[in-house]
Design a protein that fits this description.
Pathway: Cell wall biogenesis; teichoic acid biosynthesis. It holds the Pfam family Glyco_tran_WecG. Catalyzes the conversion of GlcNAc-PP-undecaprenol into ManNAc-GlcNAc-PP-undecaprenol, the first committed lipid intermediate in the de novo synthesis of teichoic acid. It is an enzyme of class 2 (transferase). It is built from 13 helices and eight strands. By secondary structure, it is of the alpha/beta class. It has two domains: about 130 residues, no CATH class; about 110 residues, 3-Layer(aba) Sandwich (Rossmann fold). Strands 4-3-8-7-5-6 form a six-stranded parallel beta sheet, with helices on both faces. A two-stranded antiparallel sheet has the order 1-2. Helix 1 crosses helix 5, helix 2 packs across helix 13 and helix 4 packs parallel to helix 13. The longest helix is centred in the middle third of the chain and has 15 residues. The chain is globular. The two termini are about 10 Å apart.
């Protein structure tokens, strides 16, 4: 699968539909796939943290969850053309799961949040089978793994925050051979539960979801400073896209 690299971090230049098509082929072949969201903040973290870089680069699909990645692709004449956000990728995978009759498991967040997300998604996606869920505060990991295995889940969404969720996936994927798709989804359960409101469609289409979130949460300004630092590093880098 072709990948592009920005500051040494891999990104999949694929659309939602291309990822789903490829993912279905991998499922049919019995192969496991992982999905990780990549944004400028995470790339800058990966530059100073080899573990984060390794987690990203060894994933199957590194989705461009950030307008900064699209700007970087334009600067480097890459093939990456559109954002593929973590929350929307989760939605597309859920639609695929319903269409293909694949069992889904949710792990992470607070009990009320993950339960409400499950209920809302079951109510809005006809045919969706959420075969189990567990909050992110469970202590007995062996019991959790047994619960996932006995549920018959083939897809699991893990909401523990990054990089904890990616570490969990890497450690436990070999123990869950029947699970074919694993995605770290961060705060997506909060969105699907209704606890957090996404930016209006106008902001999302314009690639300004970050601005809307900043207006809502000014304390995010420090995190948003990763964007200009990332773009400056991309501009001065050489031969770092392929």
């Amino acid at each position: 699968m072709k990948k592009e690299q920005y500051l040494g971090v891999s990104v999949s230049p694929l659309t939602y539909d291309q990822i789903i098509t490829d993912m279905k082929t991998r499922i049919q072949r019995g192969e496991q796939s992982t999905v990780i969201a990549v944004n400028p903040e995470k790339v800058m973290t990966a530059r100073r943290d080899p573990l984060v870089k390794d987690l990203i680069n060894n994933s199957t699909y590194q989705i461009a969850d950030g307008v900064g990645m699209i700007i970087a692709a334009k600067l480097k004449k890459g093939e990456l053309k559109e954002r593929v956000t973590g929350v929307d990728m989760m939605g597309r995978i859920l639609q695929m799961a319903a269409a293909e009759n694949l069992g889904v498991f949710f792990y992470g967040a607070k009990e009320a949040t993950v339960k409400k997300a499950k209920e809302n998604l079951e109510a809005t996606i006809p045919g969706l089978r959420v075969v189990g869920y567990e909050n992110g505060y469970v202590k007995d990991q062996n019991a959790l793994l047994e619960k996932i295995q006995t549920s018959g889940a083939q897809i699991i969404f893990v909401a523990l925050g990054s990089p904890r969720q990616e570490l969990w996936i890497r450690e436990n994927m070999p123990k869950l051979p029947e699970v074919k798709v694993l995605q770290g989804v961060g705060g997506s359960f909060d969105v699907y539960s209704g606890n957090v409101q996404r930016a209006p469609e106008f902001y999302r289409r314009a690639g300004l979801e970050w601005l809307y979130r900043l207006m809502k949460e000014p304390k995010r300004l420090k995190r948003q400073m990763a964007l200009p630092k990332f773009l400056a590093a991309v501009i001065t880098s050489r031969g770092d896209k392929k």
